[in-house]
Design a protein that fits this description.
Radius of gyration: 18 Å
CATH topology of the largest domain: Hypothetical Protein Yqey, Chain: A, domain1
Number of strands: 0
Strand content: under 5%
CATH architecture of the largest domain: Orthogonal Bundle
Distance between the termini: 39 Å
Helix content: over 70%
CATH superfamily of the largest domain: Uncharacterised protein YqeY/AIM41, N-terminal domain
CATH class of the largest domain: Mainly Alpha
Structural class: mainly alpha
């Protein structure tokens, strides 16, 4: 994952694609920041880890996309279409590094199977279901949409 991002950054430098280059630099900086944070635990003791895993990188990329979607929405409400489009361009670049996202039907099926496996029966179990989904589908599932589907299915249970 890291190598792919670095290679894309080099290609953006060579081609002179400034928007792509700046976005990939932001991604790289966020990954390096997480790497540094992973080196020590809450008490400042060394963890023995030097780098975060690919799964953690995928979660980080999803978080960055969510932040940009929220920003684009806020910019649109403020009639700043230019800034909203800039955020959406960054989203498109970051999404290139995520695996193919699950369709809504696939998300519904995954939620249904996790609910059955965990034996959850009400909204009080939503955290347990979301935790299981995040363990299994990080990088391939939009958890914002999944959350709504989980609520819907647990409400009916």
């Amino acid at each position: 994952m890291r190598e792919r991002i670095n290679q894309s950054m080099k290609e953006a430098m060579k081609s002179g694609d400034k928007k792509r280059l700046s976005t990939l630099r932001l991604v790289n900086a966020a990954i390096k920041d997480r790497d540094i944070a992973a080196r020590a635990d809450d008490k400042g003791q060394a963890t023995g880890e030097n780098k975060i895993s690919d799964a953690e990188i995928l979660a980080l990329l999803q978080k960055m996309i969510k932040q940009r979607r929220d920003s684009a929405s806020t910019y649109r409400q403020g009639s700043r279409e230019d800034l909203a489009e800039s955020e959406e361009a960054e989203i498109a670049i970051i999404e290139e590094f995520l695996p193919q996202q699950m369709s809504e039907d696939e998300v519904r099926e995954a939620v249904k199977s996790v609910i059955e496996e965990t034996g959850c029966g009400g909204l009080k179990d939503m955290g347990k279901v979301m935790g299981a989904l995040k363990q299994r589908y990080t990088g391939t599932m939009d958890f914002g949409k999944a959350s709504a589907i989980v609520k819907e299915q647990l409400k009916d249970a």
